[in-house]
């Protein structure tokens, strides 16, 4: 395990992320009532509804989970710069926590998009580092 010691922050980020997603899963399912739900079982689309925003925050987290986990593990296994892998994995967690707060507590679309973009940029950076470290 010594070869992975330098990636401590990235590995911690991989451990923290599922806890965030599980907390969002719990939050997204509370407060549901039949009049607020569609026939499919999901909340009716209404960004003014905190129920809908909690569901979207959870689904956004689920959607980015695979890319974040894959890119981070690939960067670690490819031996990409530990400093940058740790940095981007940690910034991803911070950006996504900010997005959760903005998504659930507000209807501020530009700020929510900025938080999403910051997290997505981290995943892209991790992917590119993994690719270049593996190929070159």
Automatic annotation (TrEMBL):
Judging by the UniProt lineage, the source's domain of life is Bacteria
What this protein is called in its record is: MAPEG family protein
- Gene Ontology CC terms, in alphabetical order: membrane
Q: Among its keywords, does the record have ATP-binding?
A: no
Tagged with keyword Membrane: yes
Question: Which cellular compartments is it found in?
Answer: Membrane
Source species? Paracoccus tegillarcae
* Spans traversing the lipid bilayer: 6-25, 57-77, 83-102, 114-135
- Alphabetically list the UniProt keywords: Membrane, Transmembrane, Transmembrane helix
């Amino acid at each position: 395990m010594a070869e992975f010691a330098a990636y401590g922050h990235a590995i911690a980020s991989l451990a923290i992320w599922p806890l965030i997603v599980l907390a969002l899963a719990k939050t997204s399912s509370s407060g549901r009532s039949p009049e607020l739900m569609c026939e499919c079982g999901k909340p009716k689309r209404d960004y003014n509804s905190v129920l809908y925003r909690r569901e979207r925050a959870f689904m956004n987290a689920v959607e980015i989970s695979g890319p974040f986990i894959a890119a981070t593990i690939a960067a670690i296994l490819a031996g990409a710069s530990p400093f940058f892998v740790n940095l981007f994995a940690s910034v991803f967690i911070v950006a996504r926590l900010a997005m959760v707060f903005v998504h659930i507590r507000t209807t501020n679309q530009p700020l929510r998009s900025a938080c999403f973009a910051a997290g997505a940029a981290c995943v892209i950076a991790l992917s590119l580092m993994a690719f270049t470290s593996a190929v070159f």
